[in-house]
Design brief:
single chain; mainly alpha
Length: about 140
């Protein structure tokens, strides 16, 4: 077996542990922590698209967003491109929270990547895109 595959699995596990630890400390649930990270990465995402990214029902995502709004971590705002829909953004507290949970990882990994050659970064990015696409395809197919 390739040396990288066990490392990918370990990365997924350790990131999952980070999310679980944050959700336990913050009392917003794992889905809430994951939602904050997605909104941070994709400001302006629609609630329906967030539900798909979370692999959640729209009703479950609405409940998660209600909690995040109650804690003033995220907000639903009118979509400037379509007044019939809402888009999501983090509040200042939400941004601060995401930095507190993931900031060190982002800084350290970002620093490591900046030290790599462009060619190395392209290989790493291609590998990660492939892995993400494979996991998403598996998720969409369902567990068998």
């Amino acid at each position: 077996m390739n040396d990288a595959l066990p490392l990918v699995r370990e990365l997924v596990e350790v990131m999952d542990c980070l999310t679980k630890s944050a959700s336990a400390q913050l009392d917003i649930g794992e889905t809430g922590v994951r939602a904050l990270r997605i909104i941070e990465r994709e400001p302006g995402i629609k609630p329906m698209d967030l539900a798909a990214r979370l692999a959640h029902t729209t009703g479950g995502t609405t409940t998660t967003l209600d909690v995040l709004e109650r804690y003033r971590l995220a907000r639903r705002i009118r979509n400037p491109l379509d007044r019939r829909t809402k888009v999501l953004s983090l509040t200042t507290d939400g941004e601060r929270l995401v930095r507190a949970v993931y900031g060190n990882v982002d800084r350290e990994v970002g620093g490591y990547l900046r030290e790599r050659t462009t060619a190395d970064r392209e290989v790493i990015a291609a590998f990660l895109r492939f892995t993400i696409a494979t996991v998403n395809a598996t998720l969409n197919a369902g567990v068998r």
